[in-house]
Amino acid sequence: MSAEELKLADELFDDAKYQDAVDLLDKISEKDVVEVQWRLARAVFFVSKQTNNSDEKAKFVREAFGFAQRALELDANNFGANKWYGTTLSEKSNLDGVTERIKQLENVKKHFTLAKDCNPTDPGIWHMLGQFNFKLSEVNWVTRKLINSVASNPPTASYEEALECFEKAEGLKAGFYSQNQLYLGKTYLALKQKDKAREWFQKASEVEVHSEDDRVCREEASEALKKL
Q1: Which pLDDT band, with edges at 50, 70 and 90, does 1 fall under?
Q2: Per-residue pLDDT reduced to its tens digit, 138-167
Q3: What is the pLDDT of residue 148?
Q4: How far apart are CA 21 and CA 5, in angstroms?
Q5: pLDDT per position as a tens digit, 29-49
Q6: What SS3 state is found at 114?
Q7: How far apart are CA 10 and CA 89, in angstroms?
Q8: Contact 59, 32 (CB under 8 A)
Q9: How far is CA 108 from CA 89, 100, 185, in A?
Q10: Is 70 exceeded by the pLDDT of residue 197?
């Protein structure tokens, strides 16, 4: 493994060439190291987002989780290992049913928080924490009751906390991720600040499409604008 190989893998990922990043990382001779394993988790996870086939998507998510799990075994204090373990665990638990998803909420938040504490200047981890808070805030009372009955230490969240995370992410690197702009719009709308929501939905509707996330962002933002 060399610094040049990791840099190239990062560049491929940033260019939304996720499968190319996987192929490059897979060819590295010294693969069983934390910096390769979490990058494999990241790249395979984003490969999973590019397919609409549910079986294929599930296969990639579980594969990504396996890489993240190995990264965490190699170094439990590593930023990337915690960031992508939290992300892939969240998606994997969705595949394993509602009860498992609820049981893992605390664990997901723990690893996101550990990653944030390791590297508080990474906009991506703030976005992930924002999504966690947003999605937990929008659950209905039936789901909330289920969470309180199943989770040993149920996490709490609010739209205000979600907004703080999304704004922090955008402040660290404006326009770094289309979904952050979309979620800023969604969060402002949830907080009944329609003018602010419209502003962010407008930005999100105009992003350049390089990946499936970008396509979804433009589509959702455009639909949201029609309803405002």
Answers
A1: low
A2: 987 777 787 888 777 778 899 999 999 999
A3: 80
A4: 10
A5: 889 999 999 999 999 999 999
A6: helix
A7: 22
A8: no
A9: 7, 12, 24
A10: yes
Instruction: Specify the pTM.
Output: 0.91
Residue with tokens 């499936």: 212
What are the counts of helices (DSSP H) followed by strands (DSSP E) for the chain?
A: 13, 0
- On the CB side of 222, how many CA atoms lie within 13 Å of its CA? 9
- Helix 178-190 × helix 194-205 angle, to 10°: 160
Q: What is the DSSP letter of 66?
A: H
Residue type at 21?
Answer: A
pLDDT of residue 126: 98
Q: Percentage of the chain surpassing pLDDT 70? A: 100
Q: Which residue type is seen at 174?
A: A
Assess contact for 219 and 206: CB atoms under 8 A.
no
Residue with tokens 């893998």: 9
The span from the CA of 47 to the CA of 213, in Å, is 11
- The enclosing H or E element of 195 equals helix 194-205
Q: Quickly list DSSP for 84-98.
A: HHHHHHHHHHHHT-H
Q: Which amino acid is at 15?
A: D
C-alpha distance from residue 12 to each of 8, 25, 73, 106, 112 (Å): 6, 11, 26, 32, 24
Structure-block tokens of residue 99: 């009860």
d(CA 29, CA 47): 22
- Name which of 210, 206, 186 is nearest 198 in CA terms: 186
Which amino acid belongs to residue 64? A
Of 218, 210, 139, which Cα lies nearest the Cα of 179? Answer: 218
Q: What local confidence, expressed as pLDDT, does residue 19 receive?
A: 96
What is the token pair recorded at 98?
Answer: 């509602």
